Amino acid sequence: MRLEDATDALLAQRSADGDDRAFAVLVRRHAPFLRGFAARYLGSTLEADDVVQEALVTAWRRIGELRDPSQVRSWLTTAVARRATDVIRTRARRRTEGIAEDQDFEDRRDGPDRTVEQREATRALGRAVDALPQDQRDAWILREIAGLSYEEIAERVGSTPATVRGRLTRARRTVLATIEEWR
User: Which domains can be identified in the chain, with CATH numbers?
Assistant: First the structure.
């Protein structure tokens, strides 16, 4: 039997045993889907290739941890989604920091006290979001920073829109309570 004709499960098992040729077949088989998924997730094709490549490198190192070899495509997709979420978080942090830096000029008119207050408020918001449970943090970032709809978020995190609404409600409540002194 040729490797190209083998099932995903067999290729994943052989990859877990260190067969890099089997893993290469998995990559060729699933890379187009993973690139498309990453591009939709990120809203950009520019970063999709990097995200997929980094996720595949991590997958190669950790393929021995795959419990059900027949689910390798789903496992790879999850790895890409995690890496893409990291990229979105980094974008959000840069955007938040960039907003604070862009406001520096205006802040100077109000004096140094106002500048310090706004920077501390921005940091408090960042700490509040970082302290959220992972599922709530992902939903909050994808909604409040990336501006995605409930349906888009649900698709990206593998959930339902109703679950996303619940996570966002809890996240917003927690964030607002945490930053109440800055409002």
Answer: 3-84 (1.10.1740.10), 103-182 (1.10.10.10)
